[in-house]
Amino acid sequence: MVETAKVGSLGQPVKTVLNMPAAPGGAAPKLLSEVGAFQELAALTPAAGLMPYDINVSFWSDGAAKHRWIGLPVGGKLGFSAEGEWSFPPGTVFVKNFELPADQVGSGRSRPLIETRVLVCGADGGVAGASYKWRDDGSDADLVSEPIVAPVGGGGTNARNWYFPGRDDCRVCHTPAAGGVLGVKTRQINRSLGDAGENQLVKWNRLGLFKDEIGDIERFAKLRPAADFSATVEDRARSYLDVNCANCHRPGGVAGNFDARFDTPLGRQNLIDGPVLIDLGIDRARVIAPRDVWRSIALARVETSDLTRMPPLAHEQVDREGAGVLRAWIESLPGVEVLEPPSMQPKGGEFRGAVRVVLRHRDAGATIRYTLDGSAPGKSSAVYQGPLEIKGPVTVRARAYKEGVTRSVVVQETFVVND
Q1: Quick one: pLDDT at residue 24?
Q2: pLDDT beyond 80 at 394
Q3: Which CATH code for domain 343-417?
Q4: Cβ(133)–Cβ(113) under 8 Å?
Q5: How far is residue 191's CA from residue 207's CA, in Å, rounded to a whole number?
Q6: Is 226 a residue whose pLDDT tops 70?
Q7: Residue 177 or 223, more confident
Q8: Distance between CA atoms of 407 and 163, rounded to whole angstroms?
Q9: Cβ 210 vs Cβ 251: under 8 Å
Q10: DSSP code at position 320
């Protein structure tokens, strides 16, 4: 069991107990009602030792709203750091509710709650987590042992699936390199709770939650959400990458070439023109290619829902707002103009007779070159003059060129013609 404490108005701890294991292999309660995170599950009244908090930028979770609480062990203090990760005493617990707008969860659900996650800091510096899937009638939530994808939306346009992580999934994102805890750090907590509330750093310092005085908060950085147009597009894009990528993409993390942490100066992040390990078959691919949204692999992997998607877990939909701010940042970077790829109609597939394939480019000054033998089009390849008559199985590959402008990436379609 995990003993946590709430700091009262006079600074006296109030003891409460969450029935969670403090090690990854421990058995978690089968029901959320048995965890002890809520005094009243129906009203979602948090246990006495849990304090609400919020962060500046949330990890993308298919547009869900999130409500968060933190609980410290009796006598435990937070280890503050202006940059980088904080330290948390063993037994620190985090609770997070996920909910979707009521019109997106279907008429069969009594409330918009989808999932509750609980995370506990262990004595070894690691974390143990558990996910609870809410029942349709809202009466309780059941422990998710193995990851599942289950429908949570209504029919028609509201139909949607939700990814419920298994217990081992927690450590995929909550990595040792990231300190196990992701959202609670200076650049995230440096904000007010509510529209006119006290800054959380100031409040937590006043309540004595830190080991040491933290100093003047005005000098501390803060992340900026994609929709905060008072911030630069660079700050918003780098904030997005920090939250959604930096848990793995950092020194000591995955075998990647860039450091996505916001605290790392841009010039040392290896983002802009940084080499990639997986190029997705794109020539001259980079993590972020200036002015080139087509060769920017970070953007390509955020904009897809296939197996190359990033982040790799815990979402089923593309974050259009996040992808949009990344795209805007890439387009704002200094560099040579880049041609967009030509369009090709119709799309590839099987046909019962000859097919007329039309290539187009929005820039009238661009030259389209193409191949029919599977090779990449080059400057010596055939120039497109008019519709191509395809009478047999062939892959059409095309690329746009223009003097003084970076060539486009290759587009291709495969056509199978059956007489």
Answers
A1: 66
A2: yes
A3: 2.60.40
A4: no
A5: 16
A6: yes
A7: 223
A8: 39
A9: no
A10: H
pLDDT value, residue 103: 64
Sign of the CA dihedral with 2 first, then 3, 8, and 12 last:
negative
Encode pLDDT of 345-367 as tens digits: 999 999 999 999 999 999 999 99
**Do 418 and 352 contact (CB within 8 A), yes or no?**
yes
Number of alpha carbons in the 13 Å side-chain half-sphere of residue 396: 28
CA distance linking residue 276 with residue 249, whole number of Å: 12
Element (H, E) at 328: helix 320-332
C-alpha neighbours within 13 Å on the C-beta side of residue 256: 22
For residue 288, what are the β-bridge partners? 272
- Roughly what angle, to the nearest 10 degrees, separates helices 320-332 and 233-245? 130
For Cα atoms 301, 307, 310, give the angle at the middle one, nearest 5 degrees.
Answer: 35
pLDDT tens, position by position, 89-102 = 999 999 999 998 76
Instruction: Single out the residue of 164, 162, 160 nearest to residue 104, CA to CA.
Output: 160
Residue 265 has pLDDT above 80, yes or no: yes
Q: What is the largest CA-CA distance in the chain?
A: 85
Where exactly are the structural domains of the chain? 2-206, 224-335, 343-417
pLDDT exceeds 70 at position 256: yes
Q: Backbone dihedral region of 55: left (phi > 0), alpha (psi from -120 to 50 degrees) or beta?
A: beta
Burial category of 164 from C-beta neighbours within 10 Å (exposed 0-12, middle 13-18, buried 19 and up): buried
3-state secondary structure 174-236: CCCCCCCCCCCCHHHHCCECCCCCCEHHHHHHHCCCECCCCCCHHHCCCCCCCCCCCCCHHHH
Taking the chain, what is the end-to-end CA distance rounded to the nearest angstrom? Answer: 71
